[in-house]
Design brief:
about 400 residues, Aspartate Aminotransferase, domain 2, 2 domains, four-stranded antiparallel beta sheet, 13 strands, about 15% strand, binds pyridoxal-5'-phosphate
């Protein structure tokens, strides 16, 4: 017997939500054997033993019940302590911290708290693709402002201000940035803060890469939440994924003023109830003694960044933009004569290396592909060397053809 599903349809919102171009590459690469993936920000070093043990222990002793919707008291305390010690951000653990199942979810929850249909959100591009999708899922509109290479892809208050309309509710900030690797300075953030105050806007500040800065004069990336006057109009979105190698544990947290956290907890009650308890215990352990773990990860990433830059140094075809932070390098591939999509597709099928085409991050970055150096050094070295060879071969082939 066959069933006819008459008059059923999926929502317009579901049908119109853009798919992440990063996932496309991830899925395509999965179909090919022996691929070296430089496509996603997946740290090769997973959670440290003591952190993983805390999660395992929770499972073993049956500490697997629901927790408070905001996360346990001790998690919120260690998260607030960490932010105060590492970054001078002061939040009350009882009322201004909320555990979330990863930053991606935390970003969406934040948008649900702040946005109504028809509102506008400024998204500076190229950007992490989830921002646009999430704004659209809230019935709101992403308004793009281009980050400029001549400004090192830093966020620029003037450009942001020019895009503000009476419907603008919030600005998404991501520094250190994915995919640019740009680290917006405290002074630049202070200028953006002035714009937020003048136009009564929220800042949704995605700071998942804050420990990954490579200028030895700064310890961590500055936060707009630290600018006087911004505490009450900023949501800081944090994650354990990159800082502690816990991508699959799905755990992070939000820092925000009390009224925001109260609303977030009401909404979260109906969306996820509480985070995964073993992940929460592991994250608590990670944040209790964070320094060594984070310092080692930053050092490792610094070395891997050097490895990529060094390998591409002499290339006539590939021009990397030197990143100041995060785990990615944007590489200008325009000299190859291929579009970003052609380049990444051919590189994947011919040389078995996965990178993400620039168009996944904005329609103005088609000259670039994004190379992630989050993985292990050996694979990165081999992947970048194959990419370089692929591009050099292209120059030889086009020379012969001419
Ligand atoms: C800028 C940015 N924000 C958020 C995330 C996702 O973090 P999480 O794993 O906590 O959802 C990523 C992942 O790559 C990212 O690049």
């Amino acid at each position: 017997m066959t069933f006819q599903l008459a008059h059923t349809r999926l929502s317009h919102t579901a049908m119109q939500t853009p798919r992440s171009g990063i996932r496309d590459v991830f899925d395509e690469a999965g179909k090919i054997a022996d691929v070296i993936s430089l496509a996603i920000g997946e740290p090769s070093d997973t959670a440290s033993d003591v952190v993983a043990q805390a999660g395992e222990n929770a499972i073993e002793i049956g500490d697997t019940h629901y927790t408070d919707v905001l996360g346990s008291d001790d998690f919120r305390e260690v998260a607030a302590d960490y932010e105060r010690m590492a970054r001078d951000l002061v939040y009350d653990p009882k009322t201004e911290v909320c555990a979330v199942p990863g930053a991606t979810y935390g970003l969406f929850l934040s948008m649900r708290v702040l946005l109504d249909p028809g509102d506008e959100v400024i998204v500076c591009t190229p950007a992490f693709p989830a921002y646009d999708a999430q704004v659209l899922l809230c019935g709101a509109k992403p308004v793009h402002v281009q980050l400029k290479p001549e400004h090192q892809m830093h966020y620029a208050a003037q450009d942001i201000e020019a895009a503000i309309t009476p419907r603008t509710r919030a600005i998404v900030i991501n520094s250190p940035g994915n995919p640019t690797g740009a680290v917006t300075s405290y002074d630049e953030l202070a200028q953006i803060a002035q714009v937020c105050v003048a136009h009564n806007l929220w800042a949704i500040s995605d700071e998942v890469y804050h420990p990954f800065v490579y200028d030895s004069s700064i310890r961590v990336a500055p936060s707009i939440a630290a600018v006087p006057g911004m505490h009450d109009r900023t949501v800081v979105v944090e994650s354990m994924s990159k800082s502690f190698g816990m991508t699959g544990w799905r755990i992070g947290y939000l820092l925000a003023p009390q009224d925001f956290i109260e609303r977030a907890s009401e909404i979260a009650e109906s969306l996820h109830s509480s985070v995964n308890t073993p992940a929460l215990r592991a994250a608590t352990q990670a944040l209790l003694h964070p320094q060594q773990d984070i310092a080692a990860r930053r050092e490792g990433s610094f070395e891997k960044r050097s490895l990529v830059l060094h390998a591409l140094q002499g290339s006539q075809m590939l021009k990397p933009m030197k990143p100041e932070g995060a785990l990615y390098v944007l590489v200008d591939i325009s000299a190859t004569g291929l579009s970003d999509v052609e380049f990444s597709s051919r590189l994947l099928h011919e040389s078995h290396v996965a990178v993400v085409p620039g168009e996944a991050f904005s329609d103005t970055t088609q000259r670039f592909v994004r190379v992630s150096y989050a993985g292990d050094g050996e694979s990165i070295a081999e992947g970048v060397s194959r990419m370089s060879e692929f591009a050099d071969n292209m120059s030889r082939t086009s020379y012969v053809a001419r």
